[in-house]
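Archive entry. Fields below.
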Amino acid sequence: MRRTALTLVLALACASAFADEGARNGEKLYRVYCTQCHGLQGNGKGINAAHLSVQPRDHTDTAEMSARTDDDLFKAIKEGGKAVNKSVLMPSWKANLSDEDVRALVAYLRELCCRK
Amino acid sequence: MKSSANPFWTLLAALCVPLAAQAGAAEQAREQCAACHALDAPEPGTRNIDERLTRKAPPLYYAGNKFRREWLESWLRQPARIRPAGVFPPAHAKSTPQGDVIDESTLPAHVALPADEAAAMADFLMQLRPFDDRLAAVRYQPGTISLRMGQMNFSKFKGCDGCHRDAPDVGGVSGPELHSAWKRLQPQFIASFIADPTAWDPNTLMPRMELNDAEVARLADYLKALQEDGS
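PREDICTED_STRUCTURE:
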């Protein structure tokens, strides 16, 4: 019984550590690939935003981001805006990012949107 | 003592000076340029997020496949900024209540070389050509496109203006400006890079757009049209 409990605690700790690691990697990836349009704060006001005909999504908008599933976000990043009926200005990143990278970005978006 | 007017020594000097200059440029590149520019290729197909986070300058290990020699020499004598927000934009951006802006104070200036050093350095860099085969396989033949159609394709259809300027002060700022791209880059490189930027630079911030040959040609021809319009 005690061993089972210990295993469970360890498993949960590991899962949590992996989730943290994913989000940390996601934060790095977000800085490199996303902030140019979505902004250093994730508020949709990156250095390119003023030149875009469609404004980038504000990733800190809790209500807007909560309406998207993880699969929606994954698809938008991997396949681009067009694949989810959004702007072509959001490109497909599948050649630049692995599926693991995209999952890390989704994990970070979940932090970013709801940390307020 | 030998006389400097002796034709043998004059000839020998004429033969040796360019070689010595090029050897000097190689040494100078290793000593000075390599602090910011990658002169050696990374492992094929490897991505390294930390390299991108800390990159200070564009990789130059394929400079001879990328640049036009005459532009390179001229730029090294009189460097002008190509990337409005630097080579890694997040490092040169700052948040304001109105949105992020470029922090100009953080953008470093490139050193200008004297004419003889610029020529020798251009010669050295043009020898760095690990991707000759890749360029030889490019099917792009430069053609023509009207500025109007080219501009519409560049901005509305393909969204390149989200990151690139096709005229001074028009377009996004995180990518290199493209109104002088035709003057500085080899046409086959332009076509190849548009088709698959990640093949050239695994850590590039440019996405691969999955374009066919005709779509790549339309974009490359627009850069040519911009140059012809401006020259």
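CURATOR_NOTE: The domain at 2-112 of chain A is CATH 1.10.760.10 (Cytochrome Bc1 Complex; Chain D, domain 2).
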